[in-house]
């Protein structure tokens, strides 16, 4: 199954690559939340292929998400372009994110950046790979030596109460080597899996943003949890991922009292 999914994912990636420097039809879902004709087209093509090859498996995809899908059944989570803002501005951190879950548990995850030609893959209990080579998390043991990835919800420009996000960011900035906001939650998790980031945290994400990256990070030896340190499920508002070694310290620094 994984090879078929990789081929499907690459088909979506080719469309992103072909349109990367082209003029786009850009619309707004809200003030800074963008969507392009390419997001819709990639989603359409990938869904058609999935439906053709796996007709009995439901698909939860960003641009056509339905609320009434029974998630106990096998399901694909698809983000056709994770990093739409990057895509619109020509910043090459964009990816197709595809995951296969059974009974709320990840079986397969893949994140494909066609611009940087990086394909991250993972299968349950089989490890994580970048372009076929095994990857693992960093060995950084101290928060102050760590590079942390993060992101912010689009609603930040409309909300009057962003204090918690700013305070948490400030606390991480003051207690780490640096913070990066690269603009793709799926790739942020993969870059933690690859050992580039030592940790990552964000709030307000959807299942299609993190479903694939979560299994890739876990299979690379990392840790993914809620802000309380317990199992992360898609209903949690905050996600924390790390190399495992700095996990408690990261949670501790995010959780300001
Ligand atoms: C977004 C990206 C971004 C994150 C946003 C997401 P999209 O997804 O993952 O890094 O900070 O919250 O919504 O809209 O580009 O698919
Ligand atoms: Ca996304
Ligand atoms: Ca998207
Ligand atoms: Ca989006």
Automatic annotation (TrEMBL):
Its EC number is 3.1.3.25. GO terms for molecular function: inositol monophosphate 1-phosphatase activity; metal ion binding. Keywords: Hydrolase, Magnesium, Metal-binding. Gene3D superfamilies: 3.40.190.80, Fructose-1,6-Bisphosphatase, subunit A, domain 1. Mg(2+) binds at residues 62, 79, 81-82, 209. It is an enzyme of class 3 (hydrolase). The keyword Lipid metabolism does not apply. Its cofactor is Mg(2+). PROSITE patterns: IMP_1 (PS00629), IMP_2 (PS00630). Belongs to the inositol monophosphatase superfamily. InterPro entries: IMPase, Inositol_monoP_metal-BS, Inositol_monophosphatase-like, Inositol_monophosphatase_CS, Inositol_monophosphatase_SuhB. GO terms for biological process: inositol metabolic process; phosphatidylinositol phosphate biosynthetic process; signal transduction. The keyword Flavoprotein does not apply. It comes from Flexistipes sinusarabici (strain ATCC 49648 / DSM 4947 / MAS 10). The lineage of its organism: Bacteria, Pseudomonadati, Deferribacterota, Deferribacteres, Deferribacterales. Coiled coil: none annotated. It comes from the Bacteria. It holds the Pfam family Inositol_P. This is Inositol-1-monophosphatase. It catalyses: a myo-inositol phosphate + H2O = myo-inositol + phosphate.
């Amino acid at each position: 199954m994984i090879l078929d999914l990789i081929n499907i994912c690459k088909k979506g990636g080719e469309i992103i690559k072909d349109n990367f420097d082209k003029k786009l039809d850009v619309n707004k879902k809200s003030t800074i939340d963008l969507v392009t004709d390419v997001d819709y087209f990639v989603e359409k093509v990938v869904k058609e292929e999935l439906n053709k090859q796996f007709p009995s498996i439901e698909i939860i995809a960003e641009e056509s998400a339905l609320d009434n899908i029974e998630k106990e059944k096998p399901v694909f989570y698809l983000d056709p372009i994770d990093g739409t803002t990057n895509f619109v501005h020509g910043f090459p951190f964009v990816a197709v994110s595809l995951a296969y879950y059974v009974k709320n548990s990840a079986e397969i995850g893949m994140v494909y950046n066609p611009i940087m030609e990086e394909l991250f893959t993972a299968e349950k209990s089989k490890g994580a790979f970048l372009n076929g080579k095994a990857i693992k998390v960093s060995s950084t043991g101290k928060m102050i030596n760590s590079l942390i990835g993060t992101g912010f919800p689009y609603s930040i420009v409309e909300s009057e109460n962003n204090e918690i996000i700013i305070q948490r960011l400030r606390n991480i900035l003051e207690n780490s080597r640096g913070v990066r906001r690269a603009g793709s939650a799926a790739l942020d998790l993969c870059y933690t899996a690859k050992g580039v980031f030592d940790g990552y945290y964000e709030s307000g994400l959807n299942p299609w943003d993190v479903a694939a990256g979560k299994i890739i990070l876990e299979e690379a030896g990392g840790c993914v949890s809620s802000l309380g340190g317990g199992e992360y499920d898609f209903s949690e508002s905050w996600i924390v991922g790390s190399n495992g070694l700095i996990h408690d310290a990261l949670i501790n620094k995010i959780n300001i009292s």
